[in-house]
Amino acid sequence: MTLWNKPAHELHDLLVKKEISATELTQDVLARMDAVEGKVKAFLTITKEQALEQAKAVDEKIAAGENISFLAGIPGAVKDNICTKGVRTTCASKILENFVPPYDASVVTKLQKEFPVLVGKANLDEFAMGGSTENSGFYPTHNPWNTECVPGGSSGGSAAAVASGSAIFALGSDTGGSIRQPASFCGVVGMKPTYGRVSRYGLVAYASSLDQIGPITRDVTDCANVLNVIAGHDDMDSTSSFAEVPDYTKSLVQDVKGLKIGLPKEYFVDGMDQDVEKAVRNAIEQLKSLGAEIVEVSLPHTKYAISTYYLIAPAEAATNLERYDGISYGERIDGADVVELMTNTRSKLFGEEVKRRIMIGNYALSAGYYDAYYLKALKVRTLIQKDYTDAFEKVDVIAAPTAPTPAYKIGEMISDPLKMYLQDICTVPLNLAGLPGISVPCGYSQKHMPIGLQLIGKPLDEATLIRTAYTYEQSQSFHKEMAELGGAEA
């Protein structure tokens, strides 16, 4: 029986019925990884021995008659900017190439209590700075739907692992679209929860007021189940929400009758790929036919979101990355004195995109420009938040494209950072406003590359997003199609 192509909820049922063992499942996924990893390169560290030990422990629980949780025995991956005790955590950066954390991130601690099988750490853009996983300090990840294309980023390794069958689920992080955009590019489901809904403790910081951990899964059912595990308050994270966490699986109902879905005209931007617009509008029409009411809304400050984000995020990044000095921890390149040591270390071990964002951030925070750039960006951020607040007085959910294009060729945008940044137009406003968002597969381009529908919710209302996404998903079959690894023209 082929197992790597099944979602977690089906595999859980098979485990409970004792039709398969956790060891058989893990071996099947690891064999799939062996077959595809040379083409996809989704992982930076693979933990086969640990995975088989974890699988064996789950089999012993089942044999002893114990009830197992949803994720027990299910092979998953963790983005390599999330700390894992005793397992290398590099952030895809040469400066952390051999860093092994002495503790687990809170989300990993929560996962481990469910006894999943963790098969490895997934590749990303260095320090999560990028939208294609080409900025990894080690090697780019390839899209399983067409290995000549990017998988998106920065959680490209996580999305590609799930899409290729090398993992059944994965954790990613989303600072400006880094879960949703690769989910769209790779034809899987990706959710960015409300800021504070999931603990950031142990997530290596990029931009602390924007970062959020979330699930990448095969379908919405798996997404709800993984979110149940990782959501909730954490005393180790001062920005963690105290709000009660509902059982998200109770939102897995097919019902959008009377639901008001907002359609923001600003999200259908000039230059948007025609295939994307067509697929997203078809999805919205499908939701309408299922009983939802479509209401046009306006988010007038959306046009300022990219410039606002690319002032605030680099400013926070410049501050967070000060700690990588070649002295405290991480790799170092020696020099004649401390200043030369720091200069050598940072200039030679940070990648180009990381250095670019550090320079932008330091410029925006410098004495002569703080008010003109950073302070003004914070004020515009408030206006973007207000746009959503006003819109949500009229609607329950907002629907939009996840990305303005399908996945593009590797190398196509890497030399034009501005063009790459504009790819984030549909995703960054949510991070600026701290809102939850989910990307679900809604179609394909003419060259059969996946396209994602993005649903945006009110603060802490992931439940309505899951219900809406599930209702749409169950009326289609896009989530059932797995990538056929290839390199045809894209």
From TrEMBL:
Enzyme Commission no: 6.3.5.7
Keywords, alphabetical: ATP-binding, Ligase, Nucleotide-binding, Protein biosynthesis, Transferase
GO biological process annotation, one example: translation
Coiled coil start-end: none
Domain Amidase: residue ranges: 24-465
EC main group: ligase
Keyword Nucleotide-binding: yes
Active site annotation, chain numbering: K79 (charge relay system), S154 (charge relay system), S178 (acyl-ester intermediate)
Catalysed reaction, written as an equation: L-glutamyl-tRNA(Gln) + L-glutamine + ATP + H2O = L-glutaminyl-tRNA(Gln) + L-glutamate + ADP + phosphate + H(+)
Entry superkingdom: Bacteria
Oligomeric and partner information: Heterotrimer of A, B and C subunits.
Protein name per the record: Glutamyl-tRNA(Gln) amidotransferase subunit A
Organism: Schwartzia succinivorans DSM 10502
